Request: fold
Amino acid sequence: MNTNSRKYSYKHIWTVTLPVLIGLVMEQMLGMTDTMFLGRVGEVELGAAAIAGIYYLVIYMIGFGFSIGAQIIIGRRNGEGNFGQIGRIFWHGLYFLMALALIMVLLSEWLSPKILGLMVSSPAVLTAALSYVKWRVLSLFFAFGTAMFQAFYIGTTQTKVLTFSSLIMVISNFGFNWVLIFGHFGIPALGIEGAAIGSTLSEIVSVIFLTIYTLCQKDRHKYGMNIRADFDWKELRGMMSISGWTMVQNFLSIFTWLIFFTLAEHLGEKQLAISNIIRNISGVVWMIVMAFATTGSTMTSNIIGEGHPESVIPLLKRIMKFCYMIVLSCVAMFCIFPTVFIRLFTNIPDLIDSTVPAMLVMCISYLLSPAASILFQAVAGTGNTKKAFILEVIALAIYMGYCIIIMAVFRADIAICWSADTVYALATVLLYGTYIRSRKWIGKSI
Reply:
C-alpha cells in the first residue's frame, strides 16, 4: 500500500476499530439490557420491546444517517488537512439534528398510535409498545447530539473517547433499568415504561460526558470546535447532498427490519419473542461487523482525501480479513453453546428450546455479512452516497420480497424466516462488490 502501508496497517486498523467496536457494543447493550430485564417480566413485554425498540430505531436512524454523511465529509476534510472546516460541519449537523429531534417527537405523539396500531395485532403487545415509545422518543435530542460527537471523533480517527462514553451510558442504563423496571429505593415498578425511561436517562449521561470531554480538549481550536458557527443555509445544503442519501438509506434499512418483526408478530407472540432474542444475540456480532465497516468508511474517506484512491481496495481486503477472524470465532461459540447465550435473555424453558434452530440459521448469515457491510460502508465512504442508496434499495427489495413470500404467504417456521438475512447479505456483496471493483467511484468530489 505504498506510503500508506504503515498508516493503514493491521495495527492502525485495530487502533481505530477497537474504540468504535467497544462503543457500538456498549450501545447495543442498551437494547440487550432492556431484553435481559424484560425477559424476566413476561413474553408480552419482551415482544413489545422488540417492536417498540425497532420502531424507535427507525426514527433514530433518520438522524443517525445524517450524522454518517457528516462523518464522511469530516473524514474527507481531515484527509485533506482542511481541519478548520470540520467545526462548521459539526455545528451545522448539530443544528439540523436538534430541529429534526423536535419534529420527530411532536410527530410521534400523533402518528405512533396510528402506525403501531396498523402493524401490531395483539392488543397487549400494542399497549406495552406504545408505553415504551412514549418515553423513548424523548431521548432523540440527546441521542442525536451523541451521534454528531461520534461523527466528529470517528471522522478524525480519534475514537478512544467513544469507549468511555459508551461504557458510562451502559452502566447508567443498567442501574436505571434495575431501579425503574422492578422498583427499588421507594420507586414503583414501572415495567416496560421503566426500560424506556432508563434508556433515555442514560443517553443524557452520555452526551453530558462527551460535551465536557470536548470542552476540555486543547485541539478543539484546531478543528474549529471552540467557536459556535453561525447558521448558513449554503453549508447545510452542501452537507445534505451527501447526508440526505444516507438519511433515507438508513431509514429504509431499519424500516424493512421493522417489517420483518411485524411479520414475525403476526406469526404469534412466541415467534416475536424468539426473534427479539435472536436480534439481541445477533446484535453483538453485528456490532463487531459495523465497527470494522465504520472504520473502512472513515479510512476510505481519509485515504481519498490524501490523494491515494488506489489504496482503497487493498485497505478493504485487510479490514475484511481482520473482521472475519473475530466474527467467525464468535459465530462458532454461538453454534457450539447456543443455549448458554439464549439463557442470558430468558429463563423460560420452552422459549429457550424453540430459539435454538433460529439462532443456528442466523449464524449462517455471518459467512457473508462482514463482506457485505464493509463493502457497503466503503461505497458511502467514497462520497458517492447516491449510488450507495440506489444499490441498497435493490438489495432491500430482494430482502423484502423474500420475507413476504416465506412469512406472509407460506408462514414458514421462524427459523426459516431468519434465512432472509443471508439472502440480503448475498445481494449486498454482489451489488457493492461489483461497484467497488469497477473503480467508477474514483474522482468523486465532496
User: Anything to note?
Assistant: The CA atoms of residues 278 and 338 lie 11 Å apart.
